[in-house]
UniProtKB/TrEMBL annotation:
It comes from Maylandia zebra (zebra mbuna). InterPro entries: Aldolase_TIM (IPR013785), Elp3/MiaA/NifB-like_rSAM (IPR006638), RSAD2 (IPR026372), RSAD2/Viperin_antiviral (IPR051196), rSAM (IPR007197), rSAM_sf (IPR058240). One of its GO terms (biological process) is innate immune response. Belongs to the radical SAM superfamily. RSAD2 family. The lineage of its organism: Eukaryota, Metazoa, Chordata, Craniata, Vertebrata. It is found in: Endoplasmic reticulum membrane. One of its GO terms (cellular component) is mitochondrion. This is S-adenosylmethionine-dependent nucleotide dehydratase RSAD2.
C-alpha cells in the first residue's frame, strides 16, 4: 500500500481556495449585518433599542439650541404647567457649568434657562452666574431665559443684563381675572403691571424681549393685538396647551390640565385673530412636542415622543453624544417651527 501524501489536482485546490474566500466574506458580512441592523437589541454595544435611529452614529445630533430646566420650583401655579415641581433638586453651580461646557464642545450655540421659575433659586444669582459664564467664558452666540417675571429686580439687570441676549416673559392674558383663573399670579400682585415694568428695564439695559403665551380654554377668544403691538417684542411665541403624562395629566401628575385643553380649530381661531401681528410664532402640539432639546435638573435629556418625559442618562455621566441619542429630538420639526432664527442681540439691530 502506498502511504505517500496525495497530490491534489489544480482544480481541487482552486475550489478550496474559492470556498475559503467565500466563507471569509460570509462571516464578515454576517457580523456587519448583525452590528448595523440592531441584532444586539437590549445591549449598549452597537445600536439598538427601538428608540434609536440607525443613522445616529453616522449623523449624530448637534445640540445647537438647548433648553436647560435647572429647577422645577415655581411661585406660580399655572394649571397647565408641563414641567412641575416634582423635585427641589438643583445642581451645584460648578457641576452645571461643567455640563454647559460639554454642550458647547458638542456644538451648542444657544442656551435657554428655564424652570420652574429661574429667578426663584438664590434670588436670581444662580441663573445670573450661569448667564455670565455662558456669554463671557463659553462665548455662546445666544443666552436666554424664560421667566414669569415676578422675581426679577432691576439690580439683576444692572449686574447681568449685559450678558443676556433674550428675556422671555410668560404672559397668557392681559386680563387680570383670566390670569387668576389660569394661576399666572401670586397673591395680589399684578402680573401685567410687572410685565410692563420689565419691558422698560429690557430697553434700558439692552436685552431683547420675547413674550410666551399658552393658549387655552380661558384665553383662546381674547384679542391681544393692541397690547402685543405696544410691547413690540422681538418674538411672540404662541403655544397650544399641551398635555404631558406625569406632569399635567395622568395619576402621578401635579396638575390636571385636561380642562385647559383646546381644539386645533380653537387654536387656529386665535391665530387668525392675530394674523396682523408680525412677530407671532405659532406652535401647535404637533410642532412643540418633539422639537425641543430639553435638559432636566439632572442634565438628562427628556424624550417626549410617547406623550411623557422619558429621561436619558445625565450628560455629566455619559457625555452629550451618548445622552442625546435618547432625546427623541426631531430636528426637521425644530427647523420647520422656526427654531433657528436671529437669536443674538448683537445681530438684531434693535433700536434701544
Amino acid at each position: 500500500m502506498d502511504f505517500s501524501p496525495a497530490v491534489s489536482s489544480p482544480r481541487l485546490l482552486l475550489r478550496r481556495f474559492i470556498s475559503t474566500i467565500y466563507c471569509i466574506f460570509e462571516i464578515a458580512f454576517s457580523k456587519l449585518t448583525y452590528w448595523t441592523t440592531g441584532a444586539c437589541k437590549g445591549t449598549n454595544s452597537f445600536v439598538a433599542g427601538d428608540k434609536l435611529d440607525q443613522n445616529k452614529d453616522q449623523n449624530p445630533t448637534i445640540p445647537t439650541s438647548v433648553n436647560y430646566h435647572f429647577t422645577r420650583k415655581c411661585n406660580y401655579r399655572c394649571g397647565f404647567c408641563f414641567h412641575t415641581a416634582k423635585t427641589s433638586f438643583v445642581l451645584p453651580l460648578e457641576e452645571a457649568k461643567t455640563g454647559l461646557k460639554l454642550l458647547k464642545e458638542s456644538g451648542m450655540e444657544k442656551i435657554n434657562f428655564s424652570g420652574g421659575e429661574p429667578f426663584l433659586h438664590n434670588k436670581g444669582e444662580f441663573v445670573g452666574k450661569l448667564v455670565q459664564y455662558c456669554k463671557q467664558d463659553l462665548q455662546l452666540p445666544s443666552v436666554s431665559i424664560v421667566s414669569n417675571g415676578s422675581m426679577i429686580k432691576e439690580e439683576w439687570f444692572q449686574k447681568y443684563g449685559i450678558y443676556l441676549d433674550i428675556l422671555a416673559i410668560s404672559c397668557d392674558s392681559f386680563d387680570e381675572a383670566t390670569n387668576q383663573l389660569i394661576g399666572r399670579t401670586q397673591g395680589r400682585k399684578s402680573h401685567i403691571d410687572n410685565l410692563f415694568k420689565i419691558c422698560s428695564w429690557c430697553k434700558e439695559y439692552k436685552v431683547a424681549l420675547k413674550i410666551n403665551s399658552v393658549i387655552n380654554i380661558f384665553n383662546y377668544d381674547e384679542d391681544m393685538t393692541q397690547q402685543i403691538n405696544l410691547i413690540n417684542p422681538v418674538r411672540w411665541k404662541v403655544f397650544q396647551c399641551l398635555l404631558i403624562d406625569g406632569e399635567n395629566a395622568g395619576e402621578t401628575a401635579l396638575r390636571e390640565a385636561e380642562r385647559f385643553v383646546i381644539s386645533d380649530q380653537q387654536f387656529q381661531e386665535f391665530l387668525d385673530r392675530h394674523s396682523s401681528v408680525s412677530c407671532l410664532v405659532p406652535e401647535s402640539n404637533e410642532k412643540m412636542r418633539n422639537s425641543y432639546l430639553i435638559l432636566d435638573e439632572y442634565m438628562r435629556f427628556l424624550d417626549c415622543r410617547e406623550g411623557r418625559k422619558d429621561p436619558s442618562k445625565s450628560i455629566l455621566d455619559v457625555g452629550v453624544k451618548e445622552a442625546i441619542r435618547f432625546s427623541g429630538f426631531d430636528e426637521k420639526m425644530f427647523l420647520k417651527r422656526g427654531g433657528k432664527y436671529v437669536w443674538s442681540k448683537a445681530d438684531m439691530k434693535l433700536e434701544w
